[in-house]
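hi!! sorry for the late reply, been swamped w classes. u asked for the two structures so here they r. pasted raw, havent cleaned anything up. first the sequence of the first protein and right below it the tokens
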Amino acid sequence: MPECSSDVEATSRNKAAPFSDKPLIVLRTANSMPGYEDLQKALLSLSTNSKAVVAENSGHYIMVDRPDLVITAIRKVVEAAQHHTKLNH
């Protein structure tokens, strides 16, 4: 987590929404560890076109426990990027 936090800080330093309106979906577990909420908020602030998705019934490895959510998130990001549209909230 420290490496991820420092990467987000470096990317967003002195910039509001450095990814502009590029679509971004942040997947998280229902029971986030302490400190993760701040990181998730920081990740969401990288884009003005971002969305948080809670992975119910999943542990830390969402891609193993809920691959359906990962696949859906990827498809939504690709579709929004291709059509220059906002993610549905």
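now the second protein. again sequence first, tokens right under
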Amino acid sequence: MDADKAAVLLKQERERIEKALAEQAGENDGELASLDQLADQGSELYADELEAGLRDRLLNELAAVERAEARLAEGTYGLSIESGEPIPDERLEAVPTAERTAGEQARFEGRR
């Protein structure tokens, strides 16, 4: 994949993630925090756990963008970190932060 196109894709991915993080931070206004009813407390706990999970996922995605940006700067973007084989452009367009070929990723996720 062309380095300029990769840079654009990674920039868009970074912006998407940072926007989602900012929106999530804005949604946490503590609206239910003052309610004393048990059902509301349960709802608040569920919402807090859901938000924490979403934030963790977004932070992991942001870290993946940073790793991809580093590979782009090093000239290794688009090559599998596992085998060094080229990652197809179609995969990189769909998942700009891809670190492995689709087959390698499937095997990697199966080992977890």
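hope this helps!! also noticed smth abt the second:
The longest helix spans residues 38-74.
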